[in-house]
Amino acid sequence: MIRIVSGKYRHLILKQPNVTSTRPTMDKVREALMSSLGFFIQNRTVLDLFAGSGALGLEALSRGAEKCVFVDNNFEAIKTIKENIRLLKIEEETEVIKSEYMLYLQNSNEIFSLVFLDPPYKEKDSYEKVISYLLKEQRLSKDGIIVLESDFPFEDDARFTKTKHYRYGIVHVTILWR
After folding, report:
1. What is the pLDDT, as a whole number, of residue 145?
2. What does the alpha-carbon distance between residue 36 and residue 72 come to, in Å, rounded to a whole number?
3. Which of 114, 139, 140, 164 is 20 to 30 Å from the Cα of 108, by its Cα?
């Protein structure tokens, strides 16, 4: 069971896709992550890439993000995200896209100020592909933030002004601040 841990939708239970290919971010990890971002979530345009249940993007909306685009290539995940959005009654603040992640990025011209990047852990090369693409194509705002969730630690990245690292058991969270 996953729930919104804080903000205006606090305590609402979210549905999870009934598939083994998604791995929901644990409540305690989401809570710590959102607390570390603090007021920097306010009024952001968010991309929840590899969205799964949409919990990260929904949590950001609960804490004041302006808009969230959810992208996943799994039909069950997309169906679940849409159900969670209907439950929260936030259709106007969201866009849900069923697509392979790079195909979506190449076919969109949206500029994001907060990106959640939580691919299946076996897709280790997707982190750098997405970060490089967002920077090269100027799709991350000048004050943009990228949040990485992985099963390995990331090195500091000279393309960003600040990097924060957190570890929760086997989960590593890295926040890259532009």
Report:
1. 97
2. 25
3. 164
